Each structure stands twice: as C-alpha cells, then as structure tokens.
Amino acid sequence: MNAVEVKNLSKKFGDFIAVDNISFEVPHGEIFAFLGPNGAGKTTTIKILTTLLQRTSGEVMINGFDPVKNQSEVRKSFGIVFQDPSLDEELTAFENLEFHGILYSVPKQLRKKRINELLEIVELGDRRNDLVKTFSGGMRRRLEIARGLLHHPKIFFLDEPTVGLDPQTRNQIWQYIQNLNQSEKITIFFTTHYMEEADRYAQQIAIIDHGKIIEQGTTESLKKKTGKDNLEDAFLALTGKTIRDEKASATDHLRMRRALWRGTSRR
Amino acid sequence: MKTIYVLWLRQLKRYVRSRSRMVGSLGQPALFLFALGFGFGPIFQRAGGGNYMNFLAPGVIAQGILFTAIFSGIELIWDRQFGFLKETLVAPVPRLTIMFGRTLGGATIATLQGFIVFLLALLAGFRPVSLASLPAAFVVMFLISFLFTALGTAIASTLQDFQGFQLIMNFLVMPLFFLSGALFPLQGLPGPLNLIASLDPLTYGVDALRSTLSHVSHFGLTTDVSVLCALTAIVLVIGSYLFSKIEI
Predict the structure, then answer these.
(1) How confident is the model at residue A267 (pLDDT cuts 50, 70, 90)?
(2) Do B247 and A54 touch (CB under 8 A)?
(3) pLDDT confidence band for A261 (50 / 70 / 90)
(4) Could you give the CA distance from residue A138 to residue A81 in angstroms, rounded to a whole number?
(5) Which of B5, B17, B89 is opposite residue A52, by nearest beta carbon?
(6) Chain A residues within 8 A (CB-CB) of chain B?
(7) How far apart are CA B171 and CA B206, in angstroms?
(8) What span, in angstroms and rounded, lies between the C-alpha atoms of A224 and A195?
C-alpha cells in the first residue's frame, strides 16, 4: 500500500480547472517533491489530499483512507506545514503545541514529553514560553514543523516549507526533515520553488503545470529526458519561461498589508 | 470535551492578553452611561420615568455584551486570514465541536465584559434592586453573549475578509443596539418603531436584564428568556451549517 495514491483527480472552481485529471503515487517512507510554477495546482492538490477541499472527481487514498469518506482517519495520519503561517501569535510556542496535542488527543504525559523533545530538536527550548509574535520567520517555520510532528503522523505535507528563509535555516530545516524520514520512516510530500532542494532531497519528483502532471520521475531521469544538466533547467524546459500571474486572494492583500504594518519588527 | 476546553481557553487567553481591546471596548459603554445617564437623567425623572440610571444601566450592559460578542464571533475572519483556522480545520475534530468551543469562549468573554460594564454602572450610581436576582442577571448576560457570539460566528463563516466588517457594524450591530429599547422605554412607541423593536433580538435581552436587575419588564422574563433560547438554537443550527461549509 502506498502512503498517497491519487487517481484521475480533478478539481474545478466554476469554469476554471485547477487540477486536471492527475494521477500519482507516493510509496511509504519516500521523499516526494511536487513541483510547478505559481498557480499550477500544487496547493489545491494538497488541500484536497488533506481534507480542506472537496475534489470534483477522481480517487484519493491517504494512508489507505479516503479523505472524503474517512476524514478523521485521514486527518490523524498526516501532519502539515502550510504555505502560509498558521500559528496563533498571541499564544506562546508551548501553548501552540499544547493546543495541537489536545486537538489530536495525544495523552497528557506523552504530550508533555514530546513537546519538550520537539522543542529541543527545533532549538526553541529556551523560547518555549515566549509569544509567537516575537519569533522570526525561521523560528515560526521550525515551530510549525515541530507542531506538525507532535502526533507522530505517517505522512508529512510541507507546502513551501522554506520559502523566505536564509540558506542556513533552510539547511537546518532539511536536516530535521531528512532525519525524520530516515529514523521514523515518515513519508515526506513537499512543494518548493527551490529546485536544488528537490534535486538534493527528493527520491521522486512530479512536475505539475496548468493543473496537469507533465512529468514524473527521479531527478536523474528528468535531467536525462530534457537533456539538461541541472534540475532547474530541466524544469524550465518542461514548463516554459513564461511568468505566471496568480490571482491575488484576500489573504494575499492582508498579508501584504500586515507586512507593511510590521515593517522592521519581523526579523 | 477536552477539545472544547482548549478552544475555550485559547479565546480567553487571547482576550486577557490584549488589554487594549479590553479597555477599548469599555469606552463606548462608559460614554453611554455618563453622557446619556447623567444627560437625560433629570428630564426622564421629570417625565415620570423614575431613576434613568437604573433604567439605562441594563441597556448599556447589553450593549457592551452585544459588541464584544459579535466581535468575538467575527474574529473567525482573523483566524482565517492569519492561517490559524486551517490548523483547527485539519485536526481530527468534528467541525461542530470547533464551532461550539469557539462560541463558548467568545460568550464567556462577552459575559465578563458585561460584568465589567455592570461594575462601571455601579460606579455611575446604578443600584440593582435586589442582590438575590443578581445570579439570574448573570445567566441572562451569558445567554445574550452566547446568542450574539453564535451570530457573529455564523456571519464570519460566510466572509472572506474584513471588507464587510463596516457593513456589519453599521447595518447590524448599531441598529440592533439603538432599536432595542436599551436607551428608551418601549411603552407608547410609535407603531413602526414598536414593531421593529419587537423584532430585534436584543430587545428581549435588554428586557430580561432590566427584569432581573431593575425589576421592570415589558414582556416578562419568561417570554424574554424563551425568545432568547429559541433564537440561539436557530442561530446555532444555521451557524453550524455555514461553518461546516467553510473551505479554505
């Protein structure tokens, strides 16, 4: 059985086809990169896999369960780091984790133990009682990763986990993710715009564009197929060089406004 | 159960931590109490209405509750935009539980706010008729809080951003308050106003508070409480449907 199985999945928003008849599978314990330009359908697919959106047609199995029929089982089996921040800034690092642990019914003793361990792993142990609003982007990301792992998921979805982080932090985050994948056999499903991350860490890569999967394989096979010597060139050869404009959502506007207000306070 | 508790606790922590919000939302009730209470007091007395402060205070308490409750519900938009809602929506917890926990938290905050306005009113010279009916008054405060938090949550479930917030303030919250008889007696109102007031849910909240705090009532406490309970049930049903339809 595969960790993720997707067969002929489509999602329409009115007339717009965001995801167009895609199929792929991710075996247990694998690191899988889901690549594509902006607006290609990556986040929509992740939302469908993680029960946040209803699919229009097709079949999906997450850890052997259908996200529509067995919502609760599916939800228990994955952890997720969203593209956008999803922490409560008015709560402390510890409280954010505690909240998550209770929602996922992790028993109290175990919860305490895991929270302490995870905070150490992501090097936030000494900031545990600080409000998240005082954290930098990298610290927030690390905390979100710790949170996503608290209930020991089988599959870990990471939607652009390293966007906007410096090379040091990105490297550090990938170390954790690789360790996790090796020691706990957690399946990793991630999206990124940094091709070298996919090149370096992913065992399988799928490239999606305009809602369709246009190529799948290992980084080697993608390079061979396109005749390029690095993944970025292979990616551009497959998806073209046109810049995509995503329609800005209300969230984007707010994010922008918030960034303006905060200005320099966000390190 | 534990889930509801932690959702409730989160709302409370956020409230206690944002002092500016707590103090800020007391400004309006304070203004109403002092400006209207003392401003209209003498003429109300002369018109034979008795002590205006005793009449006005329950109305202003209801106002404090209404604003805090609706805002607590509307806060859902905040969670949606700052991403935290996603975290709760992917958790293996029924949506109904999430909505209930949130609403309970918001209602508790609104009740606390009502209690603070009550203390403020005491300061302004308001005196409840009997101490024995105070517990009943607090129950009524909670009921009003719950109703309007649920209403705020229901409305917020359908909104993507804060663009509609002004609309809600001016076309829902303000009319709810001003047409509720919080500031004036319902006896002898012109027909249309009387009709509108009797359709305003807050009217029954204000009346119930007046009945428990000042022992004057227009509809009678039983009617008030029945109307409030029935409306709460309706809003909860509609709200949980809307909440279950949220897609991010």
Answers:
(1) very low
(2) yes
(3) low
(4) 13
(5) B89
(6) 47, 50-54, 71-73, 75-76, 78, 80, 82, 84-91, 95, 98-100, 102-105, 131, 147, 249-251, 253-254
(7) 19
(8) 16
Number of domains forming the structure of chain B: 1
Q: What is the pTM of this model?
A: 0.88
Nearest to A86 by CA among A160, A178, A169, A151: A160
- A66, A74 contact by CB (below 8 A): yes
Are the beta carbons of A37 and A208 closer than 8 angstroms?
no
Inform me whether the pLDDT recorded for A231 exceeds 80: yes
Residue B22 has what pLDDT?
A: 81
Query: Out of A52, A75, A103, whose CB is closest to B86?
Result: A52
Lowest-pLDDT range of A260-264, B55-59, B171-175: A260-264
Residue of B nearest to A90 (CA): B14
Domains of chain A: 2-265 (3.40.50.300)
Lookup: tokens for A135: 């954290």
pLDDT digits (tens, 9 = 90+) for A97-125: 999 999 999 999 999 999 999 999 889 99
Separation between Cα atoms, residue A212 and residue A126, nearest integer Å: 45
Taking CB atoms and an 8 Å limit, are B93 and A254 in contact across chains? no
User: How many whole angstroms separate alpha carbon A144 and alpha carbon B90?
Assistant: 14
Tell me: the pLDDT tens digits for B35-65? 999 999 999 999 888 899 999 999 999 999 9
Cα–Cα separations (whole angstroms), residue B84 to A20, A90, A99, A101, B95: 29, 11, 11, 15, 14
* Residue A153 · residue A122 · CB < 8 Å: no
* CA A199, chain centre distance (Å): 17
Q: Given B6, B160, B163, which is nearest A99 (Cβ)?
A: B6
Give tens-digit pLDDT for A43-76.
999 999 999 999 999 999 999 999 999 999 999 9
Closest C-alpha to B240, from B77, B93, B96: B96
Residue B223 is inside which H or E element, if any? helix B221-244
Q: Which of B9, B81, B99 to probe the A interface (max A CBs under 10 A)?
A: B81
pLDDT of residue A256: 59
* Structural domain for B168, as ranges: 2-244
Position A251 scores a pLDDT of 59
